[in-house]
Design a protein that fits this description.
Layout: H1 7-18, H2 33-48, H3 60-68, H4 71-74, E1 79-80, H5 84-109, H6 129-140, E2 151-154, E3 184-187, E4 193-194, H7 196-203, H8 246-249, H9 257-262, H10 271-287, H11 291-307, H12 322-333, H13 338-368, H14 374-380, H15 394-417, H16 420-423, H17 439-444, H18 448-476
Antiparallel strand pairs: 1-4, 2-3
Helix pairs in contact: 1-13, 2-12, 3-7, 3-14, 3-18, 5-6, 5-10, 7-11, 10-11, 11-18, 12-13, 14-18, 15-18
Length: 487
Amino acid sequence: MGGGAFSRGARLAGHNRRSLKGRDAAVNLPECSALRWARRGVLALACLVAGPAMAWSNHALCTWPALSVLSEVAQAVPVQAESLETFLSAEAGALVPVLAQEEQWARNHVPTYPPRPETLAFKADGAAPAELRRRFLAALRINPESRLTLHLQVLPGQSAGGRPSVPESTVTTLERNAETRSNTYVGLRAGEAVAVLDVVTTASDEPDHGLDIGLWQDSGTPYGRVYGFGKQPFGANPAIEFASQAPFHIGYFHEAAIVYKAAPFLLRTYPEYRIHLYETLARHAFASGHPYWGWRFAGWALHYIQDMTQPYHARVLPGVSVPAMLWINTLDLAGVHGPKERAITYVTNRHLAIENYQLGRLRGDWLRHDFDDAPLLALKDTARDGAVHYTDAAPRTTITQESAAYADALDKTIERYLPAKYTSDPDYVFGVTEADVDIRAVVAKSGAAAQAAMTQALVRLLGNFGRHTRSFVRALREPAQVEPVRR
């Protein structure tokens, strides 16, 4: 990451400190005074701390080493780049039943899933390529402005292989910012041979390039009004261009029962829907002779799996117990607002700090070609791979369970070993109070104990990232599983 890589996230942190109004106040609950107060407490806190909505900064930096140790990826025969329109023109008829079956799967297996309107069901009907693209994106219910161009991300310090650089605007709908200004993208030609590892690595970062932006009824977009997702359940902030993607990239599956009873909107998170959708498309692309899109869809699915390995995407308020959360809100309702504002600021800043550290350290490793640094080795470590096998249930029962269980300890480590201004200063807004914050440099100056503790935390996190990334790719090449309906 290096300097100021979290300008977008920092704006969200600043907003969280200044705007403390909850959402969904009309949820029906029993008229129990204690529950009403509990509900208001969790509601006010959870809606505001749902961001930042981007978990790992630049997934590609982590995906490449994680999959470089899988021979079926690293040594795979190069695939030919293929435009989305070409893929759809060849497979439109076959995709009609595939997407219909996928919709039924989501309705049966994803709790609180908002059914896709029948008017958006994918149809072939001999449509022209541009129209097929429009129908396909509508059936997937992703941002119709998504670029989806033929491109690769060139990792820091690596060669572009003679390919022409392309502007970031051809890759993402989001504004260029401090987090991405060091990224390099190159264009591909249709039919060009490209390494499988490069395809899936690039694609793993793609869902953060605008695919899930503006999809809600209250997002203020024409497509959001017809996609059928309803109003955004939490994390809404019209001032932040990527805030609307939060419920697709977060999995709050392991909160206390009182939290869900008080704030049922927290159950409206949909990474499982996205993962299975893109896994299904990847399987179809492989089976029908379109390996480029097989690996690109696989990379999209991986993004959400990898997001689930981030503890701040698996717990509403790491480091804050449920009783403390409710007490903070009781004080807020009594007019004492400071504790709630401080809790929001602290958790947001710590979230931003660990991702700043992750991006800065890995980017530095790539630039220096320091491939023996502990975090990169953790991403490639296969020693514990045999302990996991990816299934449709894994995001809920395994991946986020690990993340949620580690959340409090991670939060404590960050609080203990980083200077207090980054973790415990209610007036500090990460990336705004100071420009070009570099937590990697801060840790390097903080002594051996801080360096060891932060390295250990990052190694644990990235070890899980690599393990679950490989588990999914291995399972993708096996026959599709059949699981019982969950609801």
